[in-house]
Amino acid sequence: MTNHAVEYDHLLVRREGPVEYVALNRPDMRNAFNPVLVRSLREWAAAVSSSTAVRAVVLSGEGRTFCAGGDLAAMAATIDATRDDNVADAARLAGMFEALDTLPMPLISRVHGAALAGGIGLAAVSDIVVAAEDAVFALTEVKLGILPSVISPYVLAKIGRSAARELFLTGAKFGAARARDIGLVHAVVPAEALDAEVARYLNEILTAGPQAVRGAKSLIREVFGRPAAEVAHLTAETLATRRVSAEGQDGMRAFLEKRPPRWVRS
Predict the structure, then answer these.
(1) For the range 232-238, what are the long-range contacts, defined as Cβ-Cβ under 8 Å and sequence gap of 24 or more?
(2) What is the DSSP pairing of strand 56-61 with strand 107-111?
(3) What's the average model confidence in pLDDT over 189-213?
(4) Phi and psi dihedrals of 45, rounded to 5?
(5) Which option is the CATH number for 210-265: 1.10.12, 1.10.1060, 3.30.530, 3.40.50?
(6) What is the CATH number of domain 2-206?
(7) Where are the domains of the chain?
(8) Residues forming beta bridges with residue 16, ordered by sequence position
């Protein structure tokens, strides 16, 4: 049952229980980014980040395409803009991706049609990506004489240096199976099975401890790329804190007592 809805320009947002569904809503423009959509995504991310009721987010695109990257009219405007204006514009885009990347709850992207350029950036900042088997991907920036610069930290973290060397430099298209092989996508299914696969992931998330899931997402950010010895104290403290938390205590007791934990029963 839908019990919550908020309006944002170029976004369709609805909440069903603990899940927020967000759809890019520029279908005639293949859900390409323009300044309004960038601002709306950033504003939405700021709003949902403060909610403890939302336990997962599903990001999708209206129409035939997930996201085609930059809007042609918006890109045309950058040609005659000053360097300072271009820096400010790119910084706003970077801020949007950072806001999505740092959402405290899991972000699932439902990819169909195509994810190009910044559309791949959306997949890269997502925790889980489910793609239709006929979906097409490409980092097309070099074909326009520009670079996938703003999204590069997130894409590199997902696909690694070797795949980035090929795909950043060629701008070549690749399919969903290749996207899965390089770590950009986690599940590839027929288009008609997208919603069922997203629902499967949601079920896994919603049967896990809500605070534990948020903590696990935060832990990845804190630990990734650092030597084990450097984070040993942090990881020990984090585990101990979770063990003595009300949620951790209930979860462990529920397992030993062979009963559902409170967050599943509530």
Answers:
(1) none
(2) parallel
(3) 97
(4) -60, -40
(5) 1.10.12
(6) 3.90.226.10
(7) 2-206, 210-265
(8) 2, 19
